[in-house]
Design brief:
The chain has helices at about 90-95, 130-140, 155-160, 160-170; strands at about 1-5, 25-30, 40, 50, 75-80, 105-110, 145, 175, 190-195, 205-210. By secondary structure, the chain is of the alpha/beta class.
Amino acid sequence: MKTIDLTALVTPEMPVFPGDPEYRHEWHTYFESYPVCCSLLTFGPHTGTHVDAPLHFIMNGQSIDQLPIDRFFGPAICLDCRRDPMSDICIDDLNKATIEPGGIVLLYSGWQQKSGTKEFFEPGWPGISREAANRLVEIGAKAVGVDMPSVDSMAGLAEGAPAHMALLGAGMPLFESLINLDKIIGHSFTFHALPLNLQGCEASPVRAIAELP
C-alpha cells in the first residue's frame, strides 16, 4: 500500500479561522528541571485538518464521540472540482464520477495551495452549493471532505450555512482543511481520518491519510 498524508502541519504560526482560539504549545515540564518533558497545548477543535460533527451546527446533534467509528474511514473517491474564487462546487462537479452510496467523497478545489498562510481564511474560498450538498445526501454519501476551511463559503456561512446544515443534518462527518487531494484524484483508495474521542465536543483534529493499492 502507498500512504499519502492529507493532514496540514499544525504550528504556532499557522492562522486559524477568525475568532477561533489560536494554537499554542508550551512546556509544562522540561528536562532542565524534570526527568521528562510534557507539553501543554491550547487550541480549538477546528484547528488545522479536522472533522465537524453534527453538533457543530445542529442543536442536540451528535457530538464527535457519539458518531459511529466507521464514519471516519472507508472507500473513498476524490473529485477534481477546481473553481474560481467565489464560485461554489455544483452538481455538475459531482457528475464527474460515479459516487457510490456509503462512500466517502473528497472534493479538490485547489484552495489547499493557500494552506498554512493567512490567505487561507480570506474570503474567496469555494463552498459546496446548497444543491450539491442536497445531492450528496440523496446519494447516501457517508462523509464529505474538502481542502477549504469550510464546506460553506463565506457567503454561504452568512446565509445560514446551507451545506453544513444539509450534510450535518444527515449525520455526515465533514472533514475540512485537507491537503494533498491533488495526489489522489482518479485513484481508488481508502480514507482514514480518526478523531479524538472527545466527550460532548462538536469537532476534533484528525490525522487524515489515503491508502492506495
